[in-house]
Design a protein that fits this description.
Blueprint: H1 2-26, H2 36-45, E1 69-72, H3 79-82, H4 86-92, E2 97-100, H5 125-143, E3 148-153, H6 155-166, E4 173-179, H7 197-205, H8 207-211, H9 217-223, E5 233-238, E6 258-262, H10 281-291
Parallel strand pairs: 1-2, 1-3, 3-4, 4-5, 5-6
Helix pairs in contact: 5-6
Length: 309
């Protein structure tokens, strides 16, 4: 009898130990990929997949982080390639994180690799903003919150402003954080100012490209009457080495509740560019700091263009 009791006790202890190990394993931080190249490899291997930590529809916001974070990718990108670093960073910090693809067109295989997922952000920006509106409504319904925060890259940092201004989004958003957003458009290193080039870009790359050229009808309407809407906080994080949004200062906003951050003002070693800013440690630390001022800014360190690592 004593042997049976001992055996049962041992089994219970072993089960508890295994349960503890499983809990520990599930609580381990998600890996964070600080490399655009590595993110591209993931996009090819797992096309159109949610980035690590994103789209857990059972997630419930905490008192420490009461608002879910919605991630909005850039032009010619998608959620898989843009958010392999920020999504797990946010989830590891205790946020509920959600990402989606928008503005995808038929036949737009990513980087020309069949089956690697579709590029996004090429369709009309008004239509993409409507997709964002529906996605935010879904996140709110799932989590039971009144408002979310949005973090966007490039077009993904500008497009939500159409949602805020024209689709009633201001009632559902506490803050918008843009990483190299195309808020006032781009000259595309001067090419966009040459007659005929914007239309050629539209035909080759999609409507949203033309809409983001400096002086477009879309941008004139978007920015008419001011850059911001009441009740929403704005943060812009930009690099002076931005080769897509040119001049880089066109990313910045004016108005109340706006914080503009130029990475190189406090870190001359940071050479991150437009494409890799979502993989720059310091840029991402500014995102977390905007969401929670208790989150520290990463120390200044070397960051390379095109990679972020």
């Amino acid at each position: 009898m004593r042997a049976v009791v001992t055996l049962c006790t041992t089994a219970v202890i072993a089960a508890l130990a295994l349960t503890g190990l499983a809990a520990t394993a599930s609580a381990r931080p998600l890996p964070v990929t600080y490399s655009l190249g590595a993110a591209t490899a993931v996009a090819i291997d797992r096309p159109d997949s949610s980035p690590p930590g994103a789209n857990d529809w059972n997630c419930r916001p905490t008192a420490a982080h009461p608002r879910p974070v919605v991630l909005s990718h850039g032009t010619l990108f998608n959620m898989t390639i843009d958010w392999q670093a920020l999504s797990p960073l946010l989830r590891n910090a205790g946020y509920c994180v959600y990402a989606f693809n928008f503005g995808q067109q038929p036949g737009s295989d990513y980087l020309g690799f069949p089956g690697a997922g579709k590029v996004g952000g090429t369709g009309p920006i008004e239509r993409s903003a409507a997709q964002l509106a529906r996605f935010v409504d879904r996140v709110k319904a799932s989590t039971g919150v009144a408002k979310v925060d949005i973090v966007g890259h490039s077009q993904g940092g500008m497009m939500p402003r159409y949602y805020l201004k024209n689709l009633g989004g201001a009632a559902s958003v506490d803050q918008l954080i843009g990483l190299a957003p195309s808020n006032h458009g781009t000259t595309v290193l001067g090419l966009g100012l040459i007659p005929g080039v914007p239309e050629t870009l539209r035909l080759g790359l999609g409507t949203a490209i033309r809409q983001q050229i400096v002086g477009s009808d879309f941008l004139r309407r978007l920015n008419a009457g001011g850059d911001t809407v009441p009740g929403v906080r704005y943060t812009v994080i930009e690099t002076r080495y931005d080769e897509v949004v040119t001049p880089y200062t066109s990313a910045f906003l004016t108005g109340p509740d706006v914080t503009n951050i130029e990475l190189q003002r406090t870190c001359s070693q940071d050479y991150t560019d437009h494409l890799s800013i979502t993989y720059d440690r310091r840029a991402l630390s500014y995102v977390l700091h905007a969401l929670d001022p208790a989150s520290p800014i990463a120390p200044c360190s070397f960051s390379s263009p095109l990679s972020g690592a």
